[in-house]
Amino acid sequence: MVMKVIPISSGRTPAPAFAGGTLRDTLGRSMHDLRISVTDRCNFRCVYCMPREVFDANYTFLPHSAILSFEEIARLARIFVGLGVEKIRLTGGEPLVRRDLHRLVAMLKELDVELTLTTNGSLLAKNAQALAQAGLDRVTVSLDSLDEATFRAMNDVDFPVAKVLESIDAAAAAGLSPVKVNMVVKRGVNDGDILPMAERWRGSGHIARFIEYMDVGSSNGWRMDDVVPSAEVVRRISERWPLEPVGANYAGEVAARWRYVDGAGEIGVISSVTQAFCGSCTRMRLSTEGALFTCLFAQSGHDLKSLLRGGASDEEIRDQIAAVWQRRADRYSEIRTSETAKLRKVEMSYIGG
Ligand code: SAM
Ligand code: SF4
Ligand code: SF4
Fold first, then answer.
1. pTM for the model
2. Which has the closest alpha carbon to 353: 256, 169, 164, 211?
């Protein structure tokens, strides 16, 4: 699928110069987090993200010349930080299939931001030490089930649970903790794994996070019936190990936090379908080829690569980004219907999860 990317360097609508202060979008939201997709490729074919019927041998991934270099990413990141970004997450696709990712981490570390990575864990064990040494602060590892058959069916490349668990241990040993362990819950597929997952990470120092299955992209055949509401996840866990709510770490935090009353740590639930949090959404996404997306469910992005490669100054790029943010009115999850779910949206592996 070719994603529509809108040029923002045409000059027909000059960007208002950014004069400092807090940048706000049309709904009063500031810009705080930047997610950077470093590759649109992945070595898994998770059924809810890159179903193999679509992402098969004929699927055209981005050619090397189209993707941003580490230097280009670092330059843009510096500009975003100047506009208020305080947190950067590297993602993809699978970010660790991009060679020498620790080099990018070291470049971004100079920016004095919180730096994290989301990974499927397949290549983390051998990279954890180098990433930590380069300055990565923490990792989130995706793991949809502890049951071997269910996990292998969900990643659809027969990848074993043990290797992901090994990665989580390696990340902790390298100091990248607490590790957040993400589980996308799909009814009838892995909702039987909610309690085992909670039990596995209770008292471990790591944090299990349960994500509602979302209608990202246009290829996963999402249906509302497949969604297990977070309220149900919390109820099911709480019936076994009582939970109580905890306040957010910071405004705009994606996961709602719950802690075990017996002191065995906490869990997070991400309820983008049943309890939309667009009102506090401070996230931007930079795609692998340098397009800027102001919402995970966007149908088009804004071309920053042409500015970068066309000789624009940092100030010109900054003003264009500021203008995109000032026009931002996204609130997809608040207006989602079964009809909007059918719209052609950008794939999560391209935009960055
Ligand atoms: N490959 C890495 C990974 O899996 O952790 C990073 C990219 S992945 C797109 C980022 C996160 O998005 C993962 O935790 C994944 O489970 C989640 N995700 C992907 N598709 C999803 C969907 N349809 N609904 C909810 N979460 C999804
Ligand atoms: Fe790959 Fe992550 Fe998508 Fe799974 S969720 S297919 S690991 S990008
Ligand atoms: Fe943010 Fe878009 Fe998600 Fe709403 S739907 S929380 S605006 S990314």
1. 0.94
2. 211
